[in-house]
Structure formats: C-alpha cells, structure tokens
Design a protein that fits this description.
Layout lengths: L9 E9 L3 E4 H5 L6 H8 L3 E4 L6 H16 L8 E5 L10 H9 L6 E4 L5 H14 L5 E8 L12 H4 L5 E9 L7 E9 L7 E2 L15 H5 L6 E2 L1 H22 L9 E4 L4 H11 L10 H4 L6 H11 L8 E8 L3 E8 L1
Parallel strand pairs: 4-5, 4-6, 11-12
Antiparallel strand pairs: 1-7, 2-3, 6-7, 8-13, 9-10, 12-13
The structure holds coenzyme A (COA).
Length: about 350
C-alpha cells in the first residue's frame, strides 16, 4: 500500500519501442493501389512503414515495447503500480487492451487504464501518469502507445488518402517519482480537445450511434464507413495551428523560450505539418527530431518511438530540455515539457 503524500514530482525513468519486422515501402503500396512513391514522399515525407503479420495484435507490440522500457528503467514489471495504454486499434472492442497487456506482463491486480485520444493519446497518458505520481497515489506507472493500423485500413485505391499515412508500432515509457534534487523532471503537460471536429477524422461504424444496430449497415459497408475517413485539409490546417499553440503554452507555463529547448519531438502525421510548426516557432531544423520517413504515422505510439529513436541516434542526451506536441482525431491536441 502506497502512502498518500503531497506533490511529488515525476520523471521518465526509461523508454522503449518496438515495430514489427515487415517493412512496407511506398513502392509496395503502389502495387496494391493507385499511388506512387513520388506522391507520398512529396505530400507527406513518408518512405516506408511497418505492418504486422496476421497473428500479431496491438498488445503483442505493446508487450515488447514495455519490456524494453522496463529494462531501460532498470525495473521489473512487478514494481509497476499502474498501466496506462493509449490505442485506437484495440485487440478487441472490450475489455481494454491494457488488460491484455497487464496479463502478458504477468502483473495481475494493478490497474490497467485504456485511453482513446488517438494521435494525442501518449501526451494524455503521460499527463495522467504525472498526476498519479504528483499526488502520491502511485510511484511507477507504465505508459504505452501501441497501434496495429494495417489490419483496419482500406488498402485499395478508395482508401489511399488515409492508408498510405499509417504504420504499426509501439512505444512505452516508465514514469516514476523524481528523487529530490534530481535534474531529470517532467515539467508539465497541456491537454485540449474540440469535439466539433470529431467527424473530420474518424471511423463512423461500428458503434452505438445513429441507427438500431452497432454493426455497419449494408449501405455503410458498401461505402467503406468501417474504415478511417479523414478531411485531410482540415486536419492539416488545424494541426499546423494547434501544435505551435500547445508548445508555446508549455513554454510559457515554465518560463522558458523556444531557444531554451534542446529537442522538439512532435507527432508524425505529415513532415510538412512539422516543417510549418518549426517555421512558425523559429525552431532550427537540427532541433526537430522526425521519424515519419521510416515509421509513417503510428498514432499513439509515435512520440515514444520518437524518443527512443532520438536516444539511439544520439540526439537525446541526459539533461536536455525536451518539448513534445501532438495533434489528432477528436480533434485532440496537447504538449509536454520535460528535462530528460
Ligand atoms: N496517392 C495518389 N493520389 C492520392 C493519394 C495517394 N495516396 N491520396 C489522395 N490522392 C489524390 C486525391 O484523390 C486527390 O485527387 P484529385 O485532385 O484528382 O481529386 C489528390 O490526390 C489530392 O491531392 P492534394 O490536394 O495535393 O492533397 P493534399 O495536399 O490535401 O494532401 C494529405 C493530402 C492527406 C497528404 C494531406 O491533406 C495531409 O497530410 N493531411 C493531414 C493528414 C493527417 O495528418 N492525418 C492524420 C492526423 S493525426
């Protein structure tokens, strides 16, 4: 039983990520739908993505990423107090994928919480973990973002505007109490949503809304309403505005400027969005870490994959001030600022 104390500060103790083995290039996609490497690279910056084998689920990817994050943190799964898992591609409609992950990690009894904030899911997840740790309720929280998009995409020409953008993968962090005087610190998180735009990036059916049966009607199935649908221009426009706002909110809350930040790790929806964000904020190119060319958009897994890749690339080092921002379906958006 953990004692309730007041206002602990949290920090990220370790990060890990995992993607499946199968690389799917833009050329591979051009063999199954009417698209081209040139179109995809010019519009989005994506060159390849990873897709799972048929037998692999979201919780399988989450498990491997979690093991790596636990190892990086130097702790056993048995030391965790809570699991928070963000996904829009759950193993099953219910129960939450966090429960399947918890069983696979072999830690029955601790809470497992699923959140559905799509591309902003990991920022929401870190924020919830930070609040649990700040209040003293939990000491060590596993935050996971994991997605198997490939099985749910319309992989025909009809779905090409969406299906070329997404990839499978998982990433995780272990968050825990910062020791007094420790430099590494989670500074703050800032969360937003505007449900007026909920239908601009969504899956219409299945679901409990609108008609008398949760399954897609024949009419919905015929027009592909069970696949993700997107107003790409609206998403682009709002993301380019909201992400800089969220970064500035984080900086102002902590009395920092853009120049104080050592590394910006943004959600990876479109390289052009991130270039616009960097331009608006006056961020030099070398301070933005992008992964979209290799992984495409892995939704909730994007930020932890980015952090892990930045470490491997030698771009993220102890003591650096890191700003993360994300935008996605909902619309949801947010930011997090932390000292690594
Ligand atoms: N390959 C080839 N052509 C494609 C295509 C593909 N994969 N997808 C769409 N097209 C076609 C369309 O059918 C359309 O053709 P038309 O003009 O004959 O009707 C045309 O390309 C649209 O091109 P364009 O107007 O240049 O598209 P765009 O500049 O809006 O770019 C996106 C499209 C999707 C790349 C862009 O809107 C985007 O990235 N939006 C944000 C999406 C996003 O980030 N989603 C996830 C958010 S978390």
């Amino acid at each position: 039983m953990i004692q309730q104390t007041t206002l602990q500060r949290s920090t990220i103790l370790g990060v890990g990520s995992h993607v499946p083995a199968n690389v799917v290039t833009n050329h591979d996609l051009s063999r199954i739908m009417d698209t081209s490497d040139e179109w995809i690279v010019q519009r989005t910056g994506i060159r390849q993505r990873y897709w799972v084998d048929p037998g692999t689920s979201t919780s399988d990817l989450a498990l491997e990423a979690s093991r790596r994050a636990l190892s990086a943190a130097g702790i056993q799964a048995q030391e965790l107090d809570c699991i928070i898992l963000a996904t829009l591609s759950p193993d099953h409609e219910f129960p939450g994928t966090g429960c399947f992950l918890q069983a696979k990690l072999g830690v029955p009894g601790i809470p497992a919480l699923d959140i559905r904030q799509q591309c902003t899911g990991f920022v929401y997840g870190m924020s919830i973990a930070d609040q649990f740790i700040r209040t003293g309720m939990y000491r060590k929280v596993l935050v996971v973002g994991a997605e198997v998009h490939s099985k749910g995409l319309d992989r025909t020409t009809r779905g090409r505007d969406v299906s070329v953008l997404f990839g499978d993968g998982a990433g995780a962090v272990v968050m825990g109490r910062a020791e007094p005087g420790e430099e590494s610190l989670f500074c703050s998180s800032h969360l937003h949503a505007d449900g007026n735009y909920a239908r601009e990036l969504w899956i219409e059916s299945p679901g409990m809304a609108a008609h008398g049966d949760c399954h897609p009607t024949p009419e919905q199935t015929a027009r592909g309403a069970h696949y993700p649908a997107m107003n790409g221009k609206a998403v682009f426009m709002h993301a380019s505005k909201r992400m800089p706002e969220a970064v500035m909110e984080a900086l102002q809350a902590n009395g920092k400027t853009v120049a104080d930040v050592d590394l910006f790790v943004f959600h990876q929806a479109n390289l052009r969005i991130n270039e616009m964000v960097a331009k608006q904020l006056g961020i030099p190119e070398e301070k933005v870490f992008n992964t979209i060319d290799r992984f495409a958009n892995t939704t909730a897994a994007t930020l932890p994959i980015g952090l892990d890749e930045a470490i491997r690339a030698g771009k993220l080092k102890k003591g650096m001030l890191v700003a993360c921002a994300a935008f996605g379906s909902g619309f949801t958006w947010g930011s997090a600022l932390f000292r690594w």
